[in-house]
Amino acid sequence: MSAGQPRALVLAAGQGRRFGGAKLHALYRGRPLLQHVLDVVALARTGGLIQGGYVVVGPGDDRARTLSHGAGLDTIINEAPEHGLSHSLRLGLAAIEGSNPGDSAAALVFLGDQPLVRLDVIEALVARWTQGGGKIIRPRYQESPEVPGHPALLARTVWHMVDRLQGDSGFALLLDSSSLDTLTVNVPGDNPDIDTRADLLGLEEASR
Prior knowledge:
The protein contains 6 helices and 9 strands, in the order E-E-E-H-E-H-E-H-E-H-E-E-H-E-H. By secondary structure, it is of the alpha/beta class. It has a single domain, classed as Spore Coat Polysaccharide Biosynthesis Protein SpsA, Chain A, CATH 3.90.550. The strands form 2 sheets. The chain has a 7-stranded mixed beta sheet, with helices on both faces. Strands 2-3 form a two-stranded antiparallel ribbon. The longest helix has 15 residues, at about 85-100.
């Protein structure tokens, strides 16, 4: 397995306030939201697309830890999830760097509340990366082309820039930087966030 292959980083420490709590363990089609994401990451790992990775979880979330270990991924505890997505991202990238110094050329960042994430999208991003892609590679979903898509592949050369991020701003500051080489890969379908119970209900109804 090439040392240049990405490592997965699943951000799953959010408190889910808009959902009413415990969002990632809410069931979609009979399985927790987080389980859907981890299952796809596990397939990518066994298929040789990624080298394994980490899941950032909240304090005391033993269910998320169990699910993560079942998918063959290590966990990182975010003791301050109230600091938002950016804090989880920093913790995860630091863990990858600390455990594999100089080994991982990129991180493939997933959101734990996107149960429609697909293996073919991961394949497309990794293929673009191996062909000499940019510093940031993201999918552009056909059904929501205006929304920056996930998972997002971040080259090691931009990891230091996450220190600029605050709260749940995600990758907005990175994408807004004209100095970065950002590429998008067009893919079919969609991969929406589940932020509220209404979002989950709508997704369930659409899948029937």
